[in-house]
Structure formats: C-alpha cells, structure tokens
Write a structure and sequence with these properties.
397 residues; 9-stranded mixed sheet; 16% strand; binds pyridoxal-5'-phosphate
C-alpha cells in the first residue's frame, strides 16, 4: 500500500464541481489581477480568523516580507524568532534589512520558549537612553519585533509571548503559515484563533498547507486600518492611486485565480482540520508505547490543526528508511535548525547554541497527514512503525 505524505488529488476530486466553477468564473470575467475575487476572499478569510482585515499576497514569504516592512522593520533592527521553522521566517527578516536573532524552543511543543526569549532579552539588550526601545549591547541593533511561529499547526504560547512583546515594546507578528484555524485558550478562557494575537499575522496558502491554493498564495491579517492601508501599498508597487507611487513597493499581489480556488475551499477548512485531529488521535492511540517513539505534544489550551504530524525517536533515520521502503511518504520537518543554515552563517551562531531545537532536528519525523487519510492507511503506517521497533536490536543499559 503506497501512502503519500499528503494527498492533494483526493481533495480536488471531492470538490471538483465547486473548484472548476470558481476557475471558470475568473477566466470568463477576465479579471485576473485584484478585483472582486481577491476582495471577497480577503474579507472571508479575515472573517474566518476573527480579524477585521485581510491583504492578499503572492505567497506566505511575501506576506512576511511585506508585514515586516509595514511594521517599520528595516536596517539596523533586530527581530527575535525561532530556529525551528521553515527558512522563510528568518530569510524575510533579512530581506527586510534586519537581523534575525534566535531563541530556543520548548521541548514539548517545539514552539518558541517564552522563558528563553525573556532570558535572551535580559542578557543581551539594554534600554536606549530615551527609554523607548531596546538596544543590543554588542551589535547596537534596535530590537524591533517578535515573530513566533505556530509550528506544525499548534499556536505558540501567545499569552506569555504577548506580555513579553508589551513589556519590551516589540511589534508582534505571527507566522501563522501552518496554523489556519488553530485555536488557543486565552487567559479569559476564550478560544482565540491564530491571527488574533499579533499586530499582524501572516498565512501561506502553499498547496500543501491546511488551506492550499493551486500555486503560491498568502495573506496578512490585521485589525489595524492604518497597517492595512500601508500593506496594500507594499504589496502593490507602493501605489497610492493609478499613477502615483508613494514608495518603492513590490508586486506581491494575490492572484484572482488562486483567490477563487481558496474561496471554494475555505468553507471546508474546519471539517478538514477536524479530520486531521481525528487522524492524530488514531495515530496517538496506535503508537502508544511503541519503542521510544514520542507523539506530538498537544497542549490542552491549544487546538492543534496538525499541518504536520511529527513524532520523535532516537532511531529517526532507520524508521524513515523503513517507512520509505514500504512506500510510505514520511519526511523531515526540519533536518536543520535555521541558525545552522549556510545562508545564515554570517549571523555567527554555532552548533550547541540551541540544544532543544538541534536535538529535535535529529529526532523528528513527519508521518502521512491529510484530512482524507483513512483508518486502513493509518493502520498500515503504524504497523510498519511497530515492526521496525520490534526488529531493532536490543540496547544494553
Ligand atoms: C510555508 C511557510 C512559509 C512560507 O510560505 P510560502 O507560501 O511557501 O512562501 C513561511 N513560514 C512558515 C512557518 C511556513 O510553513
């Protein structure tokens, strides 16, 4: 039985009529850039997140870049984020002209550890004499923003992270590229959704994300009208009106065809996330007590949407090979933490700087996960996994 890591074909076949109709609508209208479909989708997705405004972008990376620029992040600034994420998170900080500064992640969730962030700020930064911002004592850089990532579909610890952002006067930007619809129980015992915490939140609709387009697409959501206006210009060549460009922005517009496809899919997102949670529960039950395997740590105050179902084991490479040999599409998110990426060698980090993230990158393995995954498929993945551990030579001690 071949089982892919994700199956986009089955989702399309289930929604074929709606999606084909959406595509036809755009092609017949001839409105390919901006216009009705994009505006409707911006409203609908922002509404889904419980946020007032959405600004469509050409990708999640473009959303991060434009978002940082709209928050005023630029040369001479520093931005704290996690080393356990997709490369775009830190690369876009660099593209904005700023310096990514990493803090280690929490062992259970692999999300940014608020305690580590606080420790980093207290040990490396001092208040500028004006008292209005923090300065890195070594680089003289100004600490401008905090960018938590809701890794694998679980909202980061936003309560303590928000209070850190407030206390140290940092802009807060959520990288929600993996967390469409993910929930978090606030201190007031109210369920909030990814996108409702930061000044801005960035989403990706890369095809394999929980809400995926038929190509690249993304969005920034915000409750701030001024930020929305600024973002509109950043993603559309700095354009104020037809012939006036206020500054040198980018062409980061969301494509109307992608917007139409995403509009057809959005009404199904909650049921898909629910199906992912059911699949996760099925894995959890079948993988309990298998070897040294650890299933993902889902927090009770978070509603995980399992963009990735990541287990951990000291025998990761062997298990990956065994799964692949059986035609199972397992993968690694991520084999290398960002502070050790060659592209970031100029930042001066070394192996050992973030031990929790580094260990996780050696142990982590993503099992097949998509809303339409069946019980027999899950049985097969867990059977192959169980057999692998049964045949492992016994360790002494
Ligand atoms: C996918 C992803 C991005 C980038 O999104 P693209 O649409 O591929 O540009 C950024 N951050 C994280 C955490 C992601 O998973």
């Amino acid at each position: 039985m071949r089982i892919p890591l994700i199956d986009l074909q089955v989702q399309y076949l289930n929604l074929r009529t709606e999606i084909d109709e959406a595509i036809r609508r755009v092609v017949q209208s001839g409105q390919f850039i901006l216009g009705e479909e994009v505006e409707r989708f911006e409203e609908e997705f922002a509404g889904y997140c419980g946020v007032r405004f959405g600004v469509g972008t050409s990708s999640g990376s473009a959303a991060l870049h434009a978002g940082l620029l709209a928050l005023g992040v630029g040369p001479g600034d520093e931005v704290i984020t996690t080393p356990m994420t997709y490369f775009a998170t830190s690369a876009e900080v660099s593209h904005a002209g700023a310096r990514p500064v990493f803090a280690d992640v929490a062992r259970d969730t692999l999300n940014l550890d608020p305690g580590r962030v606080e420790e980093l700020i207290e040990s490396r930064y001092s208040w500028h004499e004006s008292g209005s911002y923090l300065v890195n004592r070594r680089t003289r850089g100004r600490l401008k923003a905090l960018v938590p990532v809701h890794l694998f579909g679980q909202v980061a610890e936003m309560e303590p992270l928000t209070s850190i952002a407030n206390r140290y006067r940092l802009a807060l930007l959520e990288d929600a590229a993996q967390a469409h619809g993910a929930g978090y129980l606030s201190g007031d015992k109210e369920w909030l959704r990814a996108g409702q915490f930061g000044q801005l939140a960035c989403f990706s609709f890369y095809p394999s994300k929980n809400l995926g387009a038929f190509g690249d697409a993304g969005m920034i959501v915000t409750n701030d009208l001024l930020l929305r206006e600024r973002l509109r210009r950043w993603v559309n060549q700095g354009r104020r009106d037809r012939y006036v460009h206020e500054f040198e922005g980018y062409n980061y517009r969301l494509d109307a065809l992608q917007a139409a496809v995403l509009r057809a899919k959005l009404p199904h997102l909650d049921e898909w996330n629910e199906a992912r949670r059911r699949a996760a529960a099925a894995y959890e039950e079948r993988l309990k007590g298998v070897g040294d395997l650890r299933t993902p740590g889902a927090r009770p105050d978070a509603q995980h949407v399992y963009h990735v179902y990541a287990v951990r084991t000291a025998h990761r490479d062997g298990l990956l090979a065994a799964l692949q040999e059986s035609g199972i599409g397992a993968a690694i998110h991520y084999p290398m933490p960002l502070h050790l990426q060659p592209a970031h060698s100029g930042l001066g980090y070394r192996g050992g700087d973030f031990p929790v993230a580094e260990t996780a990158c050696r142990e982590i393995l993503s099992l097949p996960m998509f809303p339409e995954i069946t019980e027999p498929q899950i049985d097969h993945v867990t059977e192959v996994t169980r057999k692998f551990f049964d045949h492992l030579p016994m360790h002494v001690g």
